Amino acid sequence: MKSSLVRLRRLGAAGGVAAVLAVAACSSGGGTSGGGNDSNSGTVTVAVVSNPLITGQMVPLTTSVFEKKYPNIKVKFATYTEGDLRAAIEKDVSTHSNAFNVIMIGPYEAPLFARNGWLDNLSTQFISKDASYDAADLLPPIAKALSYKSSLYAVPFYGESSMMYYRKDLFAKAGLTMPQHPTWAQIASFAAKLNKPGKVTGVCLRGLAGWGDNMAALDTVVNTFGGEWFNQKWQPQLTSPAFEKATSFYVNLVRKYGESGASNDSFNQLLTLYGQGKCAMWYDATVAATSIATTYPSIAKQTGYAFAPTDLTKSSGWLWTWSLGIPQGTTSQGAAWKFVSWATSKSYDQLVANKYGWPAVPPGTRTSLYHNPDYLKAASAFAPITLASIDGTDPNHPTLNPVPYVGIQYVDIPQFESLGLEVAQQIAGAIAGTETVSQALKASQADASQYTPQQLSGS
């Protein structure tokens, strides 16, 4: 990909959210048969990430509800782990293979793919013709993150920031109190006191290599410790004192008081461990609260929630949304939008609530959900902190010092797809003990230094 795309992508991503919602909410009437396809028939192949809200809700509800409502539309799911999903989608859209009619992407991919001409403009091609969709109801930070030049190129299935989960019963037994806004120093102190080898780990943290896996959590620590990937001149800073201090802190925390085999663990593995009562604390996505509440109700009763820990900054939570987009040039686009709009609608929320309960509703996408008294009552323990965490993010200013990039747990450059993974692999090695933090960061700095400032900046 040409480096000149980077500067343009940042420009598009920075478009005003008011303009985004104004375009998206505009209705010209008519149907939703974008691309000249019959919107009520066709086969729709959907590439999705494997997690409980997808495999446990979206997939079965598609069969039992959507396909009955639209009997001439057949939906097929291709389910992947997070890393494999990104690789499969990148290959598909960049080569125009059109194996997928709908793809699950996030704020990193949506603006970049849009600039490359790989995605349909959902605002102009579909939403403007679908008065029932109500895009103006989407949470502004989420809508802005999925937009390019004031148009939505993906719509959110769920949105998230990050927060700390902790066992209230274990804290009470140890005579500890979790602040609503803890520091990482406090978390380390708590972990040391709560860690019971062979029984309960002090804290569970992501270790699996991937820029959306271990680096998603670590990057928030780096940011709040005063580190950054690049300085204003696009010079790599992975061996800077702040970056090394944050990484050493994270690696030592998980090695001393974390789960064994942490270098193999991402969201799904840690959700299981926490649900089994094996983690005294767990730092991860706010969406985990939904899965804890619905899958592990006994643990949910003993779970407390706190904001993402900080060090030098006031806040540190990430911003992400697993969202649905339609690749440019794919077939059955009208049918694809039928599915996308159904799976990301307010009526879908009500459908989930009716079948699984209000705590199970995909969080972090619509303002109306956080005004719904039924949801607020059922999800009172975690809904307010989820919304406040999302609203409190600022991807345009993610670090303590000014940086030339956008993104909290990623860097909005095409090169990050490979660079982020390379660094993540080094960090996983440090967590596994096959190399030191210093060795891992020196190798990471060398990887980042392969790109010139001109390539990274797009100048």
Give a brief outline of the structure:
The protein has 459 residues and is of the alpha+beta class. The chain is built from 21 helices and 10 strands.
Structure description:
There is one protein chain. With 459 residues, the protein is α+β, with helices and mostly antiparallel strands. The chain contains 21 helices and ten strands. The strands form three sheets. A five-stranded mixed β-sheet has the order 2-1-3-10-6. It has a three-stranded antiparallel β-sheet with strand order 8-7-9. The chain has a two-stranded antiparallel sheet with strand order 4-5. Helix 12 packs parallel to helix 13. The longest helix is centred in the first third of the chain and has 18 residues. The protein is globular.
Strand tally = 10
Q: Strands of the biggest beta sheet: in what spatial order?
A: 2-1-3-10-6
Percent of residues in β-strands: 5-15%
Bulk shape: globular
The N- and C-terminal alpha carbons lie at a distance of: 14 Å
Number of helices: 21
Summed over residues and divided by their number, the pLDDT gives a mean of: 92
Helix content: 40-55%
What integer value in Å does the Rg equal?
A: 21 Å
Pick out the low-confidence regions. 1-36
Largest sheet: 5 strands, mixed
Structural class: alpha+beta
